[in-house]
Specification:
alpha+beta; 7 strands
C-alpha cells in the first residue's frame, strides 16, 4: 500500500470537511464551536494563508486522512499558563486534526501525515518548534503519539474535560520522508 501526502486543493475540501465532522462525531465527543470553527471555513482558514496548511493523505489513491498546521501553541486557558508561556516567544506551529479514516488506521497514514506536515512546518512554514495535543480517549491516539519517534511528551493534563496530553516534536528525530 502506498501513502501519498500533499497540501490540500480546493477540490479536496468537501471530502475533508465530511471526514472531519465524522471524526468529531465518532471519536471526539462532537463539534464544539470554540475549538473546531476552522472546519466551518477550510478555504478561509487553510488555503493561501501564510503559516496555515491543510494536508491530505491518500492510500492507494483513496482519501485516507487529514492534518493541519496552524500558528501558535496551546491556548491558556484551558491549558496552564506555564504551557502557553513555553511557546509564546518561539515561532510555534501546532499540528492539529491528525484524523485518519477509521478503515485506514494502523497502515502508516498518520505517521506519513505527521512527518510531512512537521517537515513543512519546520521548513516552508517558517516555524522553529512544532507542538500538538491529543485526546487520550480517542481510540489509538495516545498510543500513536507515544510511538511516534519524534514525539516528546510535555504535559499530561488528565484528568481534564478532554483527556488532553501535550507533545512537542523533536526535529532531530523526525523520520525521513522516504522512510514513511
Amino acid at each position: 500500500m502506498t501513502v501519498m501526502v500533499r497540501l490540500a486543493y480546493k477540490e479536496d475540501l468537501e471530502v475533508c470537511e465530511d471526514h472531519m465532522r465524522r471524526v468529531l462525531d465518532e471519536d471526539l465527543h462532537g463539534y464544539h464551536q470554540r475549538w473546531h470553527h476552522d472546519v466551518d471555513d477550510l478555504v478561509g482558514t487553510y488555503l493561501d494563508r501564510a503559516g496555515w496548511a491543510l494536508f491530505v493523505a491518500e492510500l492507494d489513491g483513496a482519501f485516507a486522512g487529514t492534518t493541519v498546521v496552524k500558528p501558535g501553541g496551546p491556548a491558556s486557558p484551558p491549558s496552564p499558563a506555564w504551557l502557553g508561556r513555553r511557546y509564546a516567544l518561539q515561532q510555534t506551529g501546532q499540528l492539529a486534526r491528525v484524523w485518519i479514516v477509521r478503515e485506514w488506521r494502523r497502515r502508516g497514514v498518520g505517521r506519513a501525515l505527521v512527518t510531512v506536515a512537521a517537515q513543512w512546518a519546520l521548513g516552508p512554514g517558517g516555524y522553529t518548534v512544532v507542538c500538538l495535543h491529543t485526546d487520550a480517549s480517542s481510540p489509538g491516539a495516545l498510543d500513536f503519539w507515544r510511538a511516534y519517534p519524534a514525539a516528546v511528551e510535555v504535559f499530561d493534563a488528565r484528568p481534564d474535560a478532554w483527556d488532553t496530553v501535550h507533545f512537542e516534536l523533536d526535529a532531530a528525530r523526525l523520520p525521513d520522508h522516504d522512510a514513511v
